[in-house]
């Protein structure tokens, strides 16, 4: 599947700029097994890179200007590297401008380059196409100009670029895009950025994504508000329990004891966060033991929390999860990513996938008059150079 994308990107570069690219970079989207809205709350998350990617072709152009082409959108922009970088009206270009700014602000020196890219990561589906764009661009510039940038710093600069664009995101998306490994999920400690790989073996179950094919505009404003509500809750917790420095030090009991000191919204957000951090630990144990049914139950619980307490779901996502919950062959399902649309992640008994897919597609269409999209993703490697041999 990705060979076509890589060939197309290479051919486009050659046609546009006359020569073959010097570097070809592949940068993946991500899934998240569990630990949603937990990265910016200093907990643990369990994401993985996937085999849906952005392919970039790069070459130096011996100038101080860079030209970047989005093949799929048939759009391009130029950036003068000698001038101060500022936000553009073209949304996608801001992620690239953001990482160029980050590299410059961090003292990395590089000259002009040409870049074209093409993607098979669905946009707006919660699979982090923006993180793939940020990390792939940094990686390409690093390779082109021999810059020494540790992988984790690529992720951190990508995250800062996203903040510059306007979403005050955590580190999960960029970290998993850069650090992904085939058939492994990554348990990331979002406080220390320590991480460990666990085998992504779901035994008798298939991991399938159902894309609601909606993206409600509430996303960015609500995302930033959730972050503020959690910060407010944590400061109340800290002032009442001096030993606690972050949510990971809390139990549910701490939060329950402070119910009267918090607004109702802040209380339910904190309650969700503390329970979700605990679920990530249980999910890792379940995965390591091969107890995929236990993992599945945790996914359903996460959805319940995201929908009823964290309030980042929507009718379409709730419909998908509620419908699947009635199916014996589905042992887990939840919204994945920031919410307000995008995908659900689902564990479905092997052999039953096609029946579930067609039943859900029909019911979803009847309920919302929207086509459900379906992705059978594989867990893949993080951002890397494409080796032509
Ligand atoms: C978005 C953000 F970019 C991530 O940092 C993370 O918070 C996620 O939503 C929710 O878990 O993808």
TrEMBL record:
Q: Which SUPFAM superfamilies match?
A: GHMP Kinase, C-terminal domain, Ribosomal protein S5 domain 2-like
Domain (Galactokinase N-terminal): residue spans on this chain: 12-59
GO MF term set: ATP binding; galactokinase activity; metal ion binding
Question: In the UniProt record, does the keyword ATP-binding occur?
Answer: yes
BP GO terms, sorted: galactose metabolic process
InterPro entries according to UniProt? Galactokinase, Galactokinase_CS, GalKase_N, GHMP_kinase_C_dom, GHMP_kinase_C_sf, GHMP_kinase_N_dom, GHMP_knse_ATP-bd_CS, Mevalonate/galactokinase
UniProtKB keywords: ATP-binding, Carbohydrate metabolism, Cytoplasm, Galactose metabolism, Kinase, Magnesium, Metal-binding, Nucleotide-binding, Transferase
Name all GHMP kinase N-terminal domain ranges: 94-180
Please report the stretch or stretches of sequence annotated as the GHMP kinase C-terminal domain.
285-365
Q: What class of enzyme is it?
A: transferase
Record PROSITE patterns = GALACTOKINASE, GHMP_KINASES_ATP
One CC-aspect GO term? cytosol
Enzyme Commission number(s) from the entry:
2.7.1.6
According to its UniProt record, which protein family does this protein belong to? Answer: Belongs to the GHMP kinase family. GalK subfamily.
Designated name of the protein: Galactokinase
């Amino acid at each position: 599947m990705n060979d076509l994308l890589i060939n197309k990107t290479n051919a486009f570069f050659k046609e546009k700029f006359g020569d073959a690219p010097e570097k070809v970079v592949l940068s993946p989207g991500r899934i998240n097994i569990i630990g949603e809205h937990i990265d910016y709350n200093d907990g643990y998350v369990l994401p993985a890179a996937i085999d849906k990617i952005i392919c970039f072709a790069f070459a130096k152009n011996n100038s101080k200007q860079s030209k970047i082409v989005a093949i799929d959108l048939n759009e391009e922009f130029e950036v003068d590297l000698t001038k101060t970088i500022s936000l553009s009206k073209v949304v996608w270009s801001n992620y690239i401008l953001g990482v160029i700014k980050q590299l410059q602000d961090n003292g990395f020196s590089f000259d002009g380059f040409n870049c074209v890219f093409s993607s098979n990561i669905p946009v707006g589906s919660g699979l982090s196409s923006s993180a793939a764009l940020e990390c792939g661009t940094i990686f390409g510039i690093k390779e082109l100009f021999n810059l020494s940038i540790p992988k984790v710093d690529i992720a951190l600069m990508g995250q800062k670029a996203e903040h510059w664009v306007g979403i005050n995101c955590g580190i999960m998306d960029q970290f998993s895009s850069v650090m992904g490994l085939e058939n492994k999920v990554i348990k990331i400690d979002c406080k220390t950025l320590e991480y460990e790989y666990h085998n992504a073996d779901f035994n008798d179950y298939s991991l399938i994504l159902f894309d609601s094919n909606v993206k409600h505009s509430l996303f960015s404003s609500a995302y930033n508000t959730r972050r503020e509500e959690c910060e407010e809750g944590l400061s109340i917790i800290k002032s009442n329990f001096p030993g606690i420095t972050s949510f990971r030090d809390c139990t549910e009991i701490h939060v329950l004891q402070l119910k009267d000191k918090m607004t109702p919204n802040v209380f339910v957000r904190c309650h969700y966060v503390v329970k979700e951090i605990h679920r990530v630990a249980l999910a890792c144990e379940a995965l390591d033991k091969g107890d995929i049914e236990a993992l599945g139950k945790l996914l359903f619980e996460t959805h319940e929390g995201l929908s009823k307490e964290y309030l980042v779901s929507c009718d379409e996502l709730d419909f998908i999860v509620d419908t699947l919950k009635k199916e014996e062959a589905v042992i887990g399902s939840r919204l994945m990513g920031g919410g307000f649309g995008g995908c659900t992640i689902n564990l479905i008994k092997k052999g039953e996938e096609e029946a579930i897919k067609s039943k859900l597609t029909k019911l979803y269409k009847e309920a919302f008059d929207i086509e459900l999209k379906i992705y059978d993703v594989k867990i893949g490697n993080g951002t890397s150079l494409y080796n032509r041999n």
